[in-house]
Amino acid sequence: MAQRTVLKVDIWCPKCQKKLLQAVSGLEGVNTIDIDATKGLLTVTGEADPYEIIVRARKACKHAEVVTIGPPPAPSKKAGEEKPEQKKPQKEKPDTKVHSSDNCPMCQRFAVIYLDRWDEPNVICSIL
After folding, report:
1. Going edge to edge, which strands form the sheet with 41-46?
2. pTM
């Protein structure tokens, strides 16, 4: 039976999104994958094991929080029963900062340790 798994993940840049998509799409039984980068949501629909989806998402993004796991939503109304849609005025979207892979804080994690001559682990050995 198909399930819908919704996870809250840290998506900082297109590179993070691509890594997440590749990690989850490799699972057997995945029908659809939807990534909403503005809300940070990953929605996977299919017969894939939710535990495996969570494990792969955590390996790719370092943080994945389960929002819901359950049956997929029912299909929308039939074509004959549709109501004419009323146009609503679109709200302006808030200006959000988009990270590139060059300045992404999640992709560029590394430690900087400052050592002077006396803090080095092996002060006797020196290469001249």
Report:
1. 30-36, 41-46, 3-9, 64-70
2. 0.61
